[in-house]
Amino acid sequence: MPKYINNRVKDLETPGIRVFSNRVGQLENGVNLTIGEPDFSTPEAVKNAGIHAIKRDLTSYSHNAGLFELRDTVSKFFRERYGFYYNPESEIVITSGASEGIDAVLRTILNYGDEVILPAPIFSAYESLIHLSGAKVVYLDTTDTGFIPDPARLEALITNRTKAIILNYPSNPTGVTISKGSMDQIVNVIEKNDIYVLSDEIYSENSFDKSHQPFAAYSELRDKLFLLHGLSKSHSMTGWRIGFVLGPEEIMNHVIKVHLYNSICASLPSQYAAIEALTGSQDTPAEMNSAYMKRRDFVYKKLGEMGLDVIQPKGAFYIFPSIKDTGLTSLELATRLLEDKHVAVVPGSGFTSYGEGHIRISYANSMENLEEGMKRMEKFINNL
Ligand SMILES: Cc1ncc(COP(=O)(O)O)c(C=O)c1O
């Protein structure tokens, strides 16, 4: 009886990623290049910390904001690695993945009719969550600026209805990172305006060239910035569901209410595992990155040989070639590639309409799968 469900939910679409990964699973010799999670195991020590917690009966609820020990560990992690400080008593909430943190912050700050600026193409969850909150998305086109927001364009989009901007570097789906110069210019615009910034830096530890620059390091954003983070990508812990929100105390007092009515607290054994990830398994991201870089180089080279225009990713584990010259839409290309060659990629249109004309390939995949996937894709492109 669809007419009885919430209208905003009715409008939501199933993410393109799911559609294609489900279909490739049913095909013989399918190669799935849609995967948005590391293809590594959670580090042994982290697994053991979770197991140990379960064996010690640490399976209850925790403080709503998360175990103090974990919040303190998170605070120290960011201070030691990036030099900024958030108070573990009042400015950090542990969530069920970054996803829940993004939702909690958006629902805390958004009123009906508010506008949120999304540099696009971008991870599709933001668009849906903004829509669910009754707010409106305003897109900032980055397709002709290397997927980095142009500060003048950003400024022109800000109105008195603008509540926030969401930034995501390293980026899903493009894999691009943002230079210090561009960050300075964007921060300058945000600082002058009464808007929040949600910086989703879940891929920060998967930065390849030089170390990541966090927006939270800008003290001028201190009272308007939320840092959204977690361990899904850095420590291959997608199923453990651990995220963190760091933000100014005054608003975090409200974020925690949304979080507690939604999920009470993050899973306690996972919180113990998270402490181990941030203290004893700090080398894990670098180990994964050396594998990602080899795979990135391979896929980047192959896409170039196919004649596709593509920006070399500097982080995360995605690459986002243009398929405009094929004359097909991203959905047509992904569908035909799946049906003819049993290779699944994600149509760029799954990352807002600004992703049209591209496909997203995940190289969080074995070299063997990538080689096979690229071989089949090359044949497909050559036969168009
Ligand atoms: C940009 C971005 N943010 C957040 C998430 C969700 O992360 P989590 O598993 O911590 O909920 C993803 C997952 O793909 C992502 O790509």
What can you tell me about this protein's structure?
This protein has 384 residues and is an alpha/beta fold. The chain folds into two domains: 2-42 and 284-382, Aspartate Aminotransferase, domain 1 (Alpha-Beta Complex); 44-279, Type I PLP-dependent aspartate aminotransferase-like (Major domain) (Aspartate Aminotransferase, domain 2). It is 42% helix and 13% strand. It contains 13 helices and twelve strands. The protein has a seven-stranded mixed β-sheet with strand order 2-8-7-6-5-3-4, sandwiched between helices. A three-stranded antiparallel β-sheet has the order 9-12-11. Strand 3 (115-120), helix 6 (124-132) and strand 4 form a beta-alpha-beta unit. Helix 4 packs parallel to helix 10, helix 5 (97-109) packs across helix 9 and helix 7 runs parallel beside helix 8. The model has no long low-confidence stretch (mean pLDDT 96). Pyridoxal-5'-phosphate binds at residues 36, 97-99, 123, 168, 172, 200, 202, 230, 232, 238, 243.
